[in-house]
């Protein structure tokens, strides 16, 4: 298991990232994902900057939809940690059990049809190409 770096044990570089996480998310909580990445401060900083840009910046996709997409990809990749953390985040943004059930049905169907299309090596229809 990876060592989890707590705030009081962190370097100044790591504390700066932790402080930004807290400010951006408006919480005092730093979750284990960030504490694990803090073992390599450049990776912590780079990953936080990317996630902050993708997940917290304004855009055409609303915050709940971003979380739902993240859950679907995490389910597909089999990341238990990301499924749990982004499901919790989606619930705070309004996801209910019905939405979660629909999301799992869509994710399962997409994974099935993706595998079938890949297995059969189906050529893409011309009308689908841009």
TrEMBL record:
Signal peptide: none annotated. Residues 42-120 form the Carboxymuconolactone decarboxylase-like domain. GO terms for molecular function: peroxiredoxin activity. Transmembrane segments: none annotated. It comes from the Bacteria. InterPro entries: AhpD-like, AhpD_core, CMD-like. This is Carboxymuconolactone decarboxylase-like domain-containing protein.
